[in-house]
Fold UDP-glucose 6-dehydrogenase.
Amino acid sequence: MNIAMIGTGYVGLVSGTCFAEMGNRVVCVDIDENKVDQLKNGQLPIYEPDLEHYFSRNTSEGRLTFTTDLAEGVAHAELIFLALPTPPGEDGSADLSYVLNAAGEIADLIANEDDDRYRLIINKSTVPVGTADRVQNVMEEAGLQAGEQFDVVSNPEFLREGVAVDDFLKPDRVVIGTSSEKAANMMTRLYEPFVRQGNPIVVVDERSAEMIKYAANSILATRISFMNEIANLCEKVGANVDKVRLGISKDHRIGRHFLYAGIGFGGSCFPKDVQALHRTGRQNDYNFKILDSVLKVNDQQRELLAERVIDYFDGDVSGKKVAIWGLSFKPNTDDIREAPSHIIIRALLDAGAEVVGYDPEAIETTRRVFGDAIDYADDMYSALDGADVLVICTEWNAFRRPDLADVRDRLAEPVIFDGRNVFDPKRMAEMGFIYSSIGRPS
Ligand code: UGA
């Protein structure tokens, strides 16, 4: 099928590449000329495992191309995906200006064509309930006829950064929101190769599809904040959150995913989407109380390790050197948006500490935020030289089994604050560490 992917951010690039991998012809459109040049030269602007392999194959075989020319994309495509940013506005609701402006430009281009080909306009961005209707209005205002010349579809994505290619190629489910049978059939044809193992394509109305996306992210975020509160209570009563997790996860109604306590959720999705759904409630005279608490617990949890380090030094960290392992918001990405590590670093700097950071992928992205305010280490061990404490913010695999004797020798004091529970507290005590983790006895 002929596809245009409007927006080459993380979602657009992964989706465009994976559609091309299934034999579709995909033109990706972006207004950022530098980015398009970079992509044309075979360079990916993001780090995402496996993406490079599929990107190289599909660009070299000509199924995946890039342009800044929206008209080229629209002329090429029967399926036009909008994968544009929806940043939180000042009041927490999603800012739809990118989506609606692009829809307006696409509508004008289609309205000026000689033929009257039928198009699907597909929202892939995470957008508030009712956005498909707003996009439809924009198209109609340009004189286009819904059902004849176009239909609008909501098709939310459920990709996790770090495993996005796998998630796209083998989704648990595909959600298609449309009230048009023709649109549903085209979308089903597009996605059938991705669900050959029998996972469902769920076809619902537009508003339900939009709500599914927010409900999915919000329930996952709720699980994390819930487990973080259980962890905090475990510390007070002498229980161990890891054992509690194992015990509850065997109940198939609960399951084993997204029950890891830590230093809170970050990334470009959970904080933004939970806030936006809360805001949708407010706009509809509904106070979604759980979501408010989910966010408050998360804010508190992201501050936790900085508070612990400051307490450890009796409130005075001036001149103390803190090594941070892990800067990305989670492993296998260089994405630092809403990363707990950055909140911890900011609090430590404000309190007068010196910070040295190490991350396998996210040093450059962190440098863009903190510049020279912190130091950056070339490898995980040299970050420790002369540091007073080590703080672990992201559970990269390389941090799970380090040479602990070397870690101990390099640190000025053998003190570790572990925000991701990567070590066994008993072994750490045996090795002479002062070790503090989340929700487990020291
Ligand atoms: C999330 C969802 O998992 C995807 O399904 C969704 O498509 C995506 O948002 C989106 O809306 O685009 P992502 O933000 O990439 O994906 O990352 P997750 O793996 O979900 O992790 C989010 C945060 O939760 C991370 O900071 C992670 O450290 C934290 N987390 C996750 C925990 O603290 N505990 C857990 O048990 C799991």
About this structure: The mean pLDDT is 96. Residues 280 and 307 are 33 Å apart (CA to CA). The first strand starts at residue 2 and ends at 6. The longest helix spans residues 206-237.
